[in-house]
Amino acid sequence: MAQKEKLQCLKDFHKDILKPSPGKSPGTRPEDEAEGKHPQREKWASKLDFLLSVAGGFVGLGNVWRFPYLCYKNGGGAFLIPYFIFLFGGGLPVFFLEVALGQFTSEGGITCWEKLCPIFTGIGYASIVIVSLLNIYYIVILAWGLYYLFQCFQPELPWASCNNKWNTENCVEDTFRKNKTLWVAANATNFTSPCLTSKHSFHHRRNVLSISDGIEQVGHIKWDLALCLLAVWVICFFCIWKGVKSTGKVVYVTATFPFVMLIVLLVRGVTLPGAAEGIKFYLYPNVTRLGDPEVWIDAGTQIFFSYAICLGAMTSLGSYNKYKYNCYRDCLLLGGLNSATSFVSGFAIFSVLGFMAQEQGVDIADVAESGPGLAFIAYPKAVSMMPLPTFWAILFFIMLLLLGLDSQFVEVEGQITSLVDLYPSFLRKGYRREIFIAIVCFVSYLLGLTMVTEGGMYVFQLFDYYAASGVCLLWVAFFECIAVAWVYGADNFYDAIEEMIGYRPNPWMKWSWTVVTPFLCVGCFVFSLVKYTPLRYNKVYEYPDWSIGVGWTLALTSMICIPMVVVIKIIQSDGPLIEVTSSCPQEYQPKCNELAQPLDPNWNGSSMKPTHTIVETMM
Description:
By secondary structure, the chain is mainly α. Helix content is about 65%, strand content about 0%.
């Protein structure tokens, strides 16, 4: 019993180091507050502000254009098996871990690790690198969406015919493509020419992108897209420039209106002829696909993408919660909302694709696409065949813009919070935070201009494939679980959560952090590397070797942060390695040593082996 009491004493002492003073922001030292080093951290005005901000942050474009296609591609309903395994074994546990970590420390994505587990502060730096690169290219999609929205206000949708200046003789109307072949006199053979291109693809490639022949041919800036990119960056700035006060109010529109429009598009889609066939292709189970490792890789990466984890954003949003807020309950509710949105989006998308396939007389596989191809070619093509095409096109692109916009400014808010928390005494005074946000947005805009050139699509794909890839997210998630469950201690973290919400969460969370999530991350990470294939654009264009090198450099820039900071922390430590993973700061070391002495003089240490390593926690 003596040994158990002593271990409990050590846990209590460790918990008291992080425990906030009553009525004060958690993690704020009383002496800092007395000296006025920086103002107390602001909090969400209401619980709904936090809920809508998180919902807006991770319910985004991937739910609409990536999940339905992955489900269809990877076995329909059978894909839900690996999806839910990764959801409950990885997505939800890491999502809750990040929100709880931010709430407990009241710090952003970098400084929270400095407080909880200093030797793994590199996790925060890795996250900030990933989200910074993500913010540069993700917003380009919104620029495309805004451009398409403006073009909807013309007498005729510009992608609905071949009578435009950017079309060539190879552009064909859908009425010609339907059940038609081309006569070639040379060998008297009927065939469908690969040179024929639909009017919708012509509009996107030749008018919107003016795409060049390769990444080496950057070409000129498309100034119409550059202005759209500037417009969405300005909107993003004003959504977050006042911190959670502005973010918490904007999300009332940006996070709710897309759900309304998604329901409208769903109702319209399922009432179209051919919708049932499209939904059948979406959900028809093919269990043989479960034997393909790529199916499991797609499920894992989709979970980590759609839950916006390993980016520091969820930690930053959680840091604005009140200390006693029940984040566990709401994280489970938000997780259910996210996955349900992905599932329902599949009905809205594939019902329309089924209609389009029937109208053209082709197989659903010929019209099903993922990513930008779905949003800017396939779906616009489908709505052009509906009655009132302009109305449905406007509705679709407004939904697309709002889905992407709140994800964008929530990620930027997470980026800003993480950086401001590094230098709070300087960046929280006066209007310095607003100026800093403006600088970050402007620099990101300048870097994003490379993606609105004639060769910009190749740059965009390079960033999307490498900079914020599933490999990077899996790497960060693995070390997050190791740091919390094995270094800081899962039981210690459960104690902290119990102190905040009043009860201990389901043990499944702790088991996931300790074993399940690291195992899934390692498995998916290894298979991703084994199944790796160099990037191709449109399955035809092969990127040159130097550009592949640039892509891997973007990926490694974030991944190397974690081991690099571990090495730096060890080098900077004056004492032996064991002191780097001590539970106490140096000024408390005598107290820790006293607690570490056995109370029973006959005790040999064999009956008290800590189940985890406790890491120095500096406040």
